[in-house]
Fold each of these.
Amino acid sequence: MTRLTILPVDGAVYRDAGNYLDLDLSGCGIPADVHALQWDGSTGHIEFTDTRGNEEIAALPDWANACVTKWDETDAARIAAEEAAAAEAEQAP
């Protein structure tokens, strides 16, 4: 994974070239005061909903990794659905 952006209020996780919106991130443990996380592959920052400045990070927090897991699960389900639809289309007369 190279780039990652997480926008909790939108349930959005942008990962490299793909993204999912409206994900249920409620079980990821995202702190309530997080507006966004930006990650470039080796460093990044967390933006907050209040007036404090961004927090620079050198590693993804556990909650961000949980969001990546949610992205992975959603992507796997999308791929499985596409493969099932393609297999069904091949069997159609």
Amino acid sequence: MDREMKTIYVYLINEGVDVWRPVSAEHMGDAIYRIVSSNENPDGEDWEFQTGQVVRCECRTLSEGQSLVAVEALSDTI
């Protein structure tokens, strides 16, 4: 079964201001997603959640408008 890909937002740690990185994630059902994007700049960006992690998302208002943001890790990276 092919799962739908969505853009979700992951919080960047240690930025001084709130910064959210759009990443590709596989929709697993309900508000559950698995992050599939890779951090191409791991020395420059510290993602709150990593590639392969399954996360719970919720809608929040960002500068782009209503967006799905990762708020809780449900598993470690696979």
Amino acid sequence: MTSYAEAAAPSNEPTRRAATRRRATRAAGRSRSTAGGVLWIVVVAALAAGVVAVNVAVLRLNVGLDKANRQRTELQADVADLQSALSTAAANAQIGGDGQRRLGLVPADPNTTTYVQLAK
């Protein structure tokens, strides 16, 4: 005769196998989900690093552009100063030439120039 435990053993065998399979499937699912989570973390970290790298590059370009704009402004101021000096020099020569032509004026001879000493 077989006991109740012996009779139940064969019917429990498929249940044990199914439970073992479920545990194995859950463990595999966890490792897949863990691997997927790690993969997503790596992808997001790479994208964040790319965004930071692009922002640094843009910042460097902006600094260079700002420096170039400052130099351009300084050069424009220098050009304006030079144009003013040139205009003044041209005006002095023009005034001297007009005085000689129209009025017959001539520059004074430095040897004949006398200076008056004023008392203090």
Amino acid sequence: MSDAAMGGFLDAYLSQQAEATEVQVADEARPGEWRTVWTWIERVDGEVLPACLELLGRGREIAGELGTRNCAVVFGQGVEAWAATLGEHGADRVYVIDAPEYEEFQLDAAREALAGLVRERRPEILLFPATIQGRNLGAQVATALGTGIVPNCNALSLDANERLVIGHQTSFEERLLSDVAVPLQRPQIFTVTPGSYRRPGRESGRQAQVVAVAATVPLRPIQTKTIERAPDRPKSLSQFDAVVAAGLGVASRDGFQLASELAAELDAYAGATRGAVACGWAGADRLISVTRHRLRPRLYVACGVVGEYDHLKAIENADLVLALTDDARAPIVESADLVGIGEPSELLRRLLDHLRRAKGERVRSPP
């Protein structure tokens, strides 16, 4: 692969801009009906969990087809200020309990407050990220309301005529596929695996209506005591638009370090294959596998990666895949949009040189 081809590929990636999709805000539902689509907003280290923005985007599409509103629900202290961000990512309305008592997540309190709000406002669809918090809260809210829940979905489809959402689940390395719905009870509740949908583009200036909800649910005495607080965690994999992964083909720890340097230059996540982890070049937390992740990066760079089944399934929804390999018959080649054939470490050096030169030229260029 020539320097021009590598440079063109990276330049195209760096110049991409997220595009937002316009969906008209629907009218109010009639009293007594089950209407609107809600997404529970989970907070992590003072920020909105990216998986919740993914669900807001899918919720907006479903709400548009059903002719209703797309709403977000968030509890905590100082969270009313988040309404602007949620509006720009697709929420038409944001229900807020802004109270210091809800700064720390308490499952019982959140369940009672959310279940009470659902009984009052009657949404027909309620979405949670399939995180520890989302799965627990979703299941308990479903029990409190006497409705059904479809857990751990990797996709949601809609029968608009029946106003019925179908949750799609996979298991046993996708050998078993299940389509599950909640046809009789309302609301229909789903937890969705993070990474199942792409985050919607941000529409600057788009506003959501804020509905302040009184914190009337009495909180049970807190049974835990905070000993110390850990520092903010680094960005999670789902927060990155680019991923650089290295496998055994980089041949050494030094080669793996080159892949990590490329990830740093691209502000990308530095991942690894099972072979690289087994060699001790990366920790197990860096493993890219469908059993751990479903990725939707704009760019995926595979350096010395063979392309085993669980790895390819994890990256199948990437927009652009660049494979650097010395084996033209490796499975990763068939999944790639652009392939560099050669010694992976040498190709990485060339990519790094080009990228650093391009960044330097941009800094030096006049405004």
